[in-house]
Amino acid sequence: MASVTTPVVSVDALELKRRDWEQGIGADETNVSRQLGLTQLGASYFEVKPGESAFPFHVHYQEDELIYLIAGAGTYRFGERAFAVAAGDVLSAPAGRADMAHQLTNTGTETLKYLCVSNLPEINIVELPEKGVIRLSSRTPGGPARVELPTKATP
Q1: Fewest Cβ atoms closer than 10 Å to its Cβ: which of 45, 74, 96, 145?
Q2: CATH superfamily of 16-121
Q3: What is the chain's percent helix, strand, coil content, to nearest 5?
């Protein structure tokens, strides 16, 4: 069991680390749940610059996510739909398949700040339908490395 570093954290005091996936997809972020000693519930804080998304269009097969927008505005792609969202909105990203894929993009003029909370299945299965891959990774310390599988046969 993880030890509780502190039962309270201030968003303003969080130490953020930049993670870039590709052009236009990246964010300053930190894992909050570990700092709080949580083991069954994930929570991460993100700051996304205008024009960027923290993640590619994706869906978790076994992980529900709840996103609370703290500041800023954006567009939330969910399946084939898109929603204008702003500070104070709560977004749902249920576990599912490609029709439940989602992506939050900062379409505003200021930094988009949000907290994402989720359950933590031991094996994380993520589909990136626009990239044609499924990623599998273990959340167990020392578990197997991430594996990426194509969803379409290559010629």
Answers
A1: 145
A2: Jelly Rolls (2.60.120.10)
A3: 5, 50, 45
